[in-house]
């Protein structure tokens, strides 16, 4: 697995709140941080990392290219801007944030430009985000699956994406789960709460453990130290086959993120 299994998400965080959150996460033991150009917080992430005693070589930094930079002549220069904000010579992973088929994006062009960024040493690994099976296949045909480190997709007990997961795993492409707690909607789920009680854990920890146990990387975000520590501790929870099966039955196609202009036609399970 290329992507660290546990990272700090930074979506919707910025300014001092973001700096404090990343600083705390690194103190707690996180060693992966996920950001994106559209989050407008790369400079804050860079500051937090620069001020941390944790060495850059011990960190795994992911950023994502936004749609307005997909043109081949723009992608690499935009990534160089991101590197400047992040105060690093290269990131560990760069993703295409959305496939954006309705914007007329050529998957071949954008993947070739991303591969060039990797070849120029601007990013150690490259990958995709929010791609369905068909578009992932296009990316594979264009640059080869060995160059696609991960597909970062929305996954939660309420949105399980079985067909897409099965395809990605068959291609040896890491799965990164975002929105694993479905904006907190899964926290009050009685099934998760019952399983949590058996493990003396929280329902959030159970949702994260469910994802981790399937081999997914997770990137929950938090601004509170105790939540970060609890999330991190989810790595120590081992769910039984019966508990995993019970969570599988929670599937309800509960997608939280679906921007019309950017999203592909999602695979139906």
Automatic annotation (TrEMBL):
Keywords: NADP, Oxidoreductase. The lineage of its organism: Bacteria, Pseudomonadati, Pseudomonadota, Gammaproteobacteria, Moraxellales. The active site is at residue 39. Residues 7-250 form the NADP-dependent oxidoreductase domain. Its EC number is 1.1.1.346. One of its GO terms (biological process) is methylglyoxal catabolic process. Belongs to the aldo/keto reductase family. This is 2,5-diketo-D-gluconic acid reductase B. SUPFAM superfamilies: NAD(P)-linked oxidoreductase. The record marks 64 as: Lowers pKa of active site Tyr. The gene is dkgB. It is an enzyme of class 1 (oxidoreductase). It comes from Acinetobacter bouvetii.
């Amino acid at each position: 697995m290329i992507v660290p299994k546990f990272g700090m998400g930074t979506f919707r965080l910025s300014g001092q709140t973001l700096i404090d959150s990343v600083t705390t996460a690194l103190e707690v033991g996180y060693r992966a941080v996920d950001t994106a150009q559209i989050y407008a917080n790369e400079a804050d992430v860079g500051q937090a990392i620069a001020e941390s005693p944790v060495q850059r070589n011990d960190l795994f930094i992911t950023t994502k290219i936004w749609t307005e930079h997909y043109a081949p002549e723009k992608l690499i220069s935009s990534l160089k801007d991101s590197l400047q904000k992040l105060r690093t010579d290269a990131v560990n992973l760069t993703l295409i944030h959305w496939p954006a088929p309705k914007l007329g994006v050529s998957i071949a062009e954008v993947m070739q430009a991303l591969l060039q960024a990797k070849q120029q040493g601007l990013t150690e690994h490259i990958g995709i985000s929010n791609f369905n099976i068909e578009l992932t296949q296009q990316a594979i045909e264009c640059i080869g699956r060995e160059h696609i480190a991960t597909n970062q997709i929305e996954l939660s007990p309420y949105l399980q994406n079985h067909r897409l997961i099965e395809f990605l795993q068959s291609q040896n492409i890491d799965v990164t789960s975002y929105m694993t707690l479905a904006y907190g909607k899964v926290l009050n789920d009685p099934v998760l709460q019952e399983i949590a009680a058996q493990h003396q854990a929280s329902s959030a920890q159970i949702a994260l453990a469910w994802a981790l146990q399937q081999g997914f990387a997770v990137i929950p975000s938090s601004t509170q130290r105790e939540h970060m520590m609890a999330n991190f501790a989810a790595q120590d929870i081992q769910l039984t086959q019966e508990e995993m099966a019970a969570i599988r039955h929670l599937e309800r196609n509960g997608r939280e993120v679906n921007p019309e202009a950017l999203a592909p036609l999602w695979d139906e399970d």
